[in-house]
Amino acid sequence: MDVRKKIMFIMPSLTGGGAERVMLTLIKHIDKKKFLPVFVLMKKEGRFVNVVETLPKEVEVIDLDASQARYAIFKIAKVIYQVKPDIVFSTLGYLNLLIAIIRPFYSKKIKFISRESNTVSIENKQENYPKLFDWLYKNVYNNFDLIITQSKYMRDDLVENFGTMIEKTAVIYNPVDIEHISKKSCEVEDQLYDNTKINLIAAGRLAPQKGFDILVEAMTYLDDQFHLTILGEGEDKLSLENQIKQFDLEHCITLSGFQDNPYAYMSEADFYILSSRYEGLPNVVLESNVCGTPCVAFAAPGGTVEVIENGKTGILVKDFNAKALAKAIVKASEIEFDKIYIQNFCKINFNVQKIVKEYEEHFMNKV
Hints:
Blueprint: E1 5-11, H1 18-29, E2 35-41, H2 49-52, E3 60-63, H3 69-83, E4 87-91, H4 93-102, E5 111-115, H5 120-123, H6 130-139, E6 146-149, H7 152-162, E7 169-171, H8 178-185, E8 198-203, H9 212-218, E9 226-231, H10 237-246, E10 253-257, H11 262-268, E11 271-274, H12 283-290, E12 295-298, H13 304-307, E13 314-317, H14 322-333, H15 339-350, H16 352-366
Parallel strand pairs: 1-2, 1-4, 2-3, 4-5, 5-6, 6-7, 8-9, 8-11, 9-10, 11-12, 12-13
Helix pairs in contact: 3-4, 8-11, 9-14
């Protein structure tokens, strides 16, 4: 008789964001002697699809082939009924809300756990119907048996603004696959940067949350010894291109699109720049630190301030504007950061084994 706990991981797709990386890391490294993972995707698509093929063979992958959440709710309900997991574990806001809505229809023996991926009070303001999302978080989110947040800030946001019961929450920082990142960071075939410059790197979805428009403006306050490379695709690409032209910055900013191996860019850069207006917990900070690269970041709402040791692993910028960001970048360039210290800070606090064990303990406590 198989005594392992069957845990169903549910995600919308594999489009290439931080939440997808975390989920795949958990599925890959969770103790298969204790847990039997089932990976359910609303639609098996996205840049990380190939990674699915590298998951352990015992991981069952189910593609619901549902293009939108509202079409997936009945399929999700059906697959939970068919698989009969001990634990249902989901991530990303709107999917979590759907599952919170259907949770009362299942036995209390099945434990429903969510992982919140962003700062909800701010994220909801970006939705088409913010009041509806606020209402749902206040009225159905406590249906979960456990809500995992990536930072203390995110937990407090749920408790204070949405009435989430604190006893139903747990703070677990994101895991960093140090071995994988270290290996990929060394795979540099071509010269990525002009080594006569101070090279800045930023990465992420080209969207308002990430504040790349502020970062582009910050470059107007820096001299020509600084060069910025931005990795990623998104809806703001055209407006960023126009902004770069408007400021006549084509010579010092490169938009390099999505890269399969961003770690090579992080490793070769002098500084990682995080200009986000808000975050849940920025994986890119941890990833750049694994590469030994310090981060200059806004002390924006979210968990950023919880993962940067100011002056040692990076610089936190309190004033939220382009000029302050530029000033902090100049300040960082005058500091001799200890690459080994940065790497060890990340290895000690955010290594996969430590974080996955924390998840496993919470899973076992619930079943």
